[in-house]
Design goal:
7-stranded mixed β-sheet; alpha/beta; 21% helix; 6-stranded antiparallel β-sheet; 25% strand; 329 residues
């Protein structure tokens, strides 16, 4: 690797979403010279809205850094290191062959190579994940690893919360490597799994599935169901008290065991799956509970198509839903 200057590394930074903002800011705070920021072009969020710059572009503007949308602009820049954090596009070989380029990847490689490692870890029910500081290679996420750190996945942690924690760990790995030297990377070994991008159809809730599985969909973000022919997003939920919320393997997500779910339907009664009930919750107003194929979930926050997010209690009152009604199959 090209030697760094006395004042620090001269870096080309590649990143786009919110999770890539903190590492960029950390590099600047540590005194490294970010010569160029490569990010994806502004994106239109709605049909009538103007294109919106990426979070990394906003941060780079605030920091007074040079910005480009053309990844090939990185070739001409004098720098001794490239840093990639969730850039979201293919980087041509001529870009990373010119200088050493490293990537912060949010998994314990080679498990969960690909675009959605955090989401796939949660959906799979993994109890542990991590972050790797690795070489960028011609094949996606196959580079040798300089540093890695692991952490447990908390039972009700959302993908956004977990990604934030992994980013903090990754910043520590990156700054340590910049200060102490990268050393020799270690080739990946072990069983590889692939983290494909999450498609909307995967996030449709199947209420006949166990409650633990449904809760993992909600934790990933974007989970949805249908009521009276209209899509309803489930933004937040939690295990229902006194319901058996074990998953298919018998391992529950914050499960209580034993008691029947509302309406007298025993856990595992698929005929009742998707049934909506208002139940008394100790110390608060009645809650909104939904029967699953095994156990039940308490809905906390939902969002109807074209409407603002509301509490599940306000939604059930506004929609005038009687106990025992069900989500569309």
């Amino acid at each position: 690797m090209t030697a760094r200057s006395a004042s620090g590394w001269r870096v080309v930074y590649f990143g786009t979403p919110e999770v890539a903002v903190a590492p960029l800011q950390a590099l600047c705070r540590a005194g490294h010279d970010v010569a160029l920021v490569v990010t994806r072009p502004p994106k239109r969020r709605g049909r009538r809205q103007a294109p919106t710059p990426s979070p990394v572009e906003h941060a780079a503007t605030d920091l007074g850094l040079e910005i480009t949308y053309d990844v090939e602009d990185a070739v001409a820049v004098e720098a001794n290191l490239g840093v990639v954090v969730a850039y979201g596009e293919y980087i041509p070989e001529e870009v990373f062959e010119r200088r050493r380029t490293v990537n912060l990847h949010f998994s314990q490689l080679p498990r969960w190579r690909g675009a959605a490692p955090v989401e796939r870890a949660i959906l799979a029910g993994d109890t542990e994940t991590g972050v790797c500081l690795m070489d960028v290679a011609s094949e996606i996420d196959t580079g040798a690893v300089y540093r890695r750190a692991s952490t447990g996945i908390r039972p009700e942690e959302t993908a956004d919360e977990l990604r934030t924690r992994l980013c903090e760990l990754g910043i520590g790995l990156l700054l340590d490597a910049l200060a102490a030297g990268f050393g020799d990377p270690v080739p990946q070994s072990g069983e590889m799994t692939w983290a494909d991008k999450i498609e909307s159809g995967e996030l449709r809730i199947d209420w006949s599935a166990p409650a633990g599985h449904v809760l993992r969909l909600v934790r990933v973000g974007g989970a949805w169901t249908v009521y009276r022919g209209r899509r309803l997003k489930v933004l937040a939920a939690e295990p229902a008290a006194h319901a058996n919320n074990a998953d298919d393997s018998g391992a529950g997500d914050s499960a209580d065991s034993g008691a029947d779910v509302p309406g007298g339907s025993a856990p595992g009664d698929a005929r009742a799956a998707g049934t909506i009930w208002q139940v008394s919750v100790s110390g608060s107003r009645p809650g909104v509970q939904v029967v699953t194929g095994r156990g039940a979930l308490r809905l906390l926050t939902v969002q109807s198509e074209g409407r603002a997010a509301v509490s599940a209690r306000d939604w059930i009152n506004g929609a005038r839903i009687a106990n025992g009604q069900r989500f569309d199959p």
